[in-house]
Predict the structure.
Amino acid sequence: MHLRLTFLFFLCFIPTSFAEGFRCKTGQFIKTGDTVKDVIAKCGKPDDKSFKYVEVVKRDKVKKLKQIIWIYKPGKFQFEQHLTIYNRKVTAIERGARIK
């Protein structure tokens, strides 16, 4: 019981950025909130790009926001990393398919 409480106590101090980030080929760490300029400086240009529209309701008006998805492919047998870009900042990082 004591060991479990100690473990839970230390879990509280783990930064959440580790869960919402990835390490690119250069070894630099990318996290949500980084700017496009920072990402390019750390990882270079993305291997691929796509975009999607997200509908947001504000004051009873539906607005479509364009989000850009940058795809990084670190290497064979590793996972693609999909960075959602909005207003020139990384708003989300998702792991994609494993590269074969």
The longest helix spans residues 2-11. Confidence is low (pLDDT under 50) at residues 5-18.
